[in-house]
């Protein structure tokens, strides 16, 4: 239920993050740069979920760090409610950071084993003491535990006393503590057992409806992304190569990379598996330190022509498609027939 | 020197109707400080040449421990096998001497592990590590072994094998490392290959490459493949038959098409229903309630009963046996008929 009438809570424009590559022990010379995120733009509205998919190394997690203001962008801007994060300082930056929270991938390493659950969830209040005055904090933590479906009486327990799914709930409660408008979920269910994943996804959806949250949902499980997302961005080597509504991306993918990615996902139904179309990409993605000229996917693409080497395709709506794609030869093609 | 061992080694002759590998009522337990953990409680499955068996289960279900028992790589103690048999071409591996098992391990029954980076030795070149199979088991010279390593790297489609044979594991990507693991495991033409979550750490595009490679190698050599996984998509893609494990037991044994059409155990049914479906977008996902069982403190009766929507009183009082539904199918649920009917409806 993407609300399109309200203004976006998050605006990302031409965001770039290059990490320097240096050589030499005493005198470090810069010999190049890793182009982790290289010109990414999108909007996100309240109550909306943007899914981000792509192979490891495509820049998903660097993008998440930039949105959290944990990394400074090389260029480009991240605006929250119209204010540029890079321009904000001091008190204002603190308030903006409060508004964007994160749920981490691994609930086993992202919770401090020496802290009680109450201290973990209450820690954000130490930094942002204006959200909950000292006397109110325990009460608030108990409320949060209840919201994420844990027993409020377990406030004094330690992380090891909980299962993986419960720990992820603790991580979610910590993310909710400061009433953010945006939550970045970086692979929130991939470390969990299959039978537990559905529980956590349902919780995330319920919380979104309850608090009108905007989610950035980073995951490699494409069927989970489809279930939870309103729009999906496909990333390859630091760029968004295709962006559209979930139906547009999954049923009418236009970029060859999206098509290959979707066709590589095993379908949980053995009927008709022999006849299924499968595009198997050869090799690995090129290094982000030295991406190919023109279109970055051309080295693995079966549609590549000389124009792909010479001209970089922009992310735009092309003649044979109805949503944004960055391919000179974009053409909708249903690789995985809806079943 | 190993004459006595060689005498009892399984022969390579025709199999007739015998399965290549049969696990029969296997029990494995671990002694820990908190007590005895029964990780595997009476698991049985069999595998024929050219066949792919998928063993599906979540962490702690006993799927990897069963595989390690087949390979004979469990640390004993703390592990103990109080009961059961593992028959490879009719010979019970558990009754063989360690020497005789070493003849089988890696040569005739081989295994691929999940995490290729930690399974490879970082201080030797990959060529040396692949060649080790030939030097140790076949007594080849270094030079010949190196030559065979290059051939194998070609066979698992590692580009520029002749140069890369001198590289170290960290110089390869995750997918390429898994290919090196596969090259090592198929070096001696095993009859059974056990792949323990071979693609879990990999991207979907690389996963597709690896699964295709395994299928191709299997077609060429007609080996039996045991694929251990928790991914219902991968199972549907490649398996002939499936064993679903829960709490150290097999809860459903079936041909792969049968399970996906109509599961006969509430756990397999719950897993299949919790897959996000396109037509149910916007609805809450079906979720199996509760948590996987604690192996130190198993619930009485059926291990799944605290999470089961079909539970009746006798599920708590008596552990269901593996009921035979037909010649290829069994389910460890007192109410398999109801589950099966519900699945059709």
What report would you give on this structure?
- Chain B: One of its GO terms (cellular component) is plasma membrane.
- The complex is a heterodimer of chains A (339) and B (345).
- Chain A has helices spanning 60-67, 90-99, 117-127, 137-147, 164-176, 194-211, 222-228, 246-251, 256-264, 306-310; strands at residues 10-23, 29-44, 49-53, 75-80, 83-84, 100-103, 182-186, 214-218, 231-236, 239-245, 316-317, 324-325.
- With 339 residues, chain A is an alpha/beta fold.
- In chain A, the strands form two sheets. Chain A has an eight-stranded mixed sheet with strand order 6-7-8-3-9-10-12-11, with helices on both faces. A four-stranded antiparallel sheet of chain A has the order 2-1-4-5.
- Chain A is globular and about 65 Å long.
- Chain B is of the alpha/beta class.
- Chain B has two domains: 19-239, P-loop containing nucleotide triphosphate hydrolases (Rossmann fold, 3-Layer(aba) Sandwich); 245-344, no CATH class.
- Helix content of chain B is 36%, strand content 22%.
- Chain B has helices at residues 3-8, 63-71, 98-104, 116-119, 126-138, 142-155, 161-164, 174-186, 204-221, 232-238, 256-261, 266-273, 313-317, 336-344, and strands at residues 21-32, 35-47, 52-56, 79-88, 91-92, 109-112, 192-196, 224-229, 241-246, 249-255, 323-326, 329-331.
- In chain B, helix 5 packs parallel to helix 8 and helix 6 (142-155) crosses helix 8.
- Residues 1-7 of chain B have low confidence and may be disordered.
- The chains are: A alpha/beta (339), B alpha/beta (345).
- The interface between A and B is large, with 45 and 48 residues.
